[in-house]
Amino acid sequence: MNKLRAWFEMIFGGRSGNLLLALTVSLLILAIFRPGYFTLDNLRVIALNVSSIGIASVGMALLIISGNVDLSIGSIYAAAAVMAAWLALSVSPPLAVLGGVLLGALLGLTNGALVWRIRVSPIIVTLGSFTVIRGMMVVLTHGRSIYGIPEDFFVVGRAVPLGIPTQVWTLVIVAVLAHIVLSRTTIGRYIYAIGTNREASEVAGINIRLFVLILFAVNGLLAALPGVLAASRFGAASIEYGVGFELQVITAVILGGVAFSGGEGSIKGVMLAVAFLGVMNSGLISLGVDPAYTDVVRGAALVASVLIEQLTQERNERFRRTVAMEDWAAQMKEKRTDATIRPRLEPSDH
User: Does 199 fall in a domain?
Assistant: First the structure.
């Protein structure tokens, strides 16, 4: 019995474990009431639908772990899609894809430079970028969608290597690489250190400015990549792409156990959250629930995640205070003991 309990706690303990448990329960409910949910075609569609959020969530997770955030990723997503579609009208598909992705990286890098230079909350800076990028797209496109794209451009977004869509393969590759960087490299340790205590990291010799710029650029690139793939998949691009995208991504990241204050989280947890949200959205629709309720579930999940994070931080703070008080009490007791013993030893010294 004890071994079974230990096994259960090892798998389902902690934030990621709770997500895995919730995902398992959701799948069991669907297996009972909607057995047809588990067809290969349906699972492929679900994976395709969550892949864009998953790819962008990786970049956002790295950024939030470092103590930053970018609210402009929905605008970057749309701008990259529009840029790639516009370039596809006159250049080869690889160059069009490259142009869209590089635009996202450049916009992310600009956000990082502004955050570092202005030294105010990244929320304020990137909220301004969100509006500026959207406004510039309206001005440059006159509010019109990009269509009439050559069919050669569709190959990237509609390809299904080994029966799996390109977007899903992209998500797997990006998530695995990010997991390795975070968990097995010095760069990953630096990212955690910066998010935990920026001042101490700077004193330790970490180039904070360089890391902030790189992480914002990577975040912009990973927000642009699904936008470009979407433009290729649908054969068109619109400035309306990416509306609400940032909320879905941040929800997945926070629900996946990444602390909004920085310094904590994992790619594994984020991917579990992406899968859970995808199953919840599609599962509710499969069960006949009004699709509008998916937004309610998503918002409730975000609030619950923030609440859990706050309660966890408060519990950890109480634990640290208790340990500190116990250490202080032990030191005081030791000093009193020394003060009592020393006078008794003094006469024998003469």
Answer: yes
